[in-house]
Amino acid sequence: MSRGTNVHGTAIVVGTTGLLFIGPSGAGKTAAALHCIGRARRRGLFSALVADDQVLLDVAGGRIVARAPASIAGLAEIRGSGIVSVETIGCAILGQIVQPIRPPFDERIAPDGEDCEILPGHRLPLTRLPVADGFCCFERLVQLLPFLVRN
Length: 151
Description:
Layout: E1 5-14, E2 17-21, H1 29-42, E3 47-60, E4 63-67, E5 75-78, E6 82-85, E7 91-101, E8 115-119, E9 122-130, H2 137-144
Parallel strand pairs: 2-7, 7-9
Antiparallel strand pairs: 1-2, 1-3, 3-4, 4-7, 5-6, 8-9
Helix pairs in contact: 1-2
């Protein structure tokens, strides 16, 4: 595998699905991803961090593979607090892009079939995830992507 294309985001795995959280700095990518890992584990689902802040993406067998740069593997930044160690997995095949969004929302309903070109010529489905105080990110994500909790 090559060195990969470095993208700004946070990648996790829930069950067998790789998720890439994208958005600008301060959008809540890491917080939402770590929340989802914790809640998925409480439900008995496998979940782990792949990479936080910088995610290396490659294409293998027509699928997008995410992994962490060696210098930050196993680490996540909790904004305003510091860097913490998090249980990780070495790589994951990405199946979905998740974009945390905060109120007020520009649109009431996201467009059907929304996707994102994450690497040139490679697109993945995009899900907008509302995040705000009092929102359970994982429960919202499961409502939007019920396949995450199905076997």
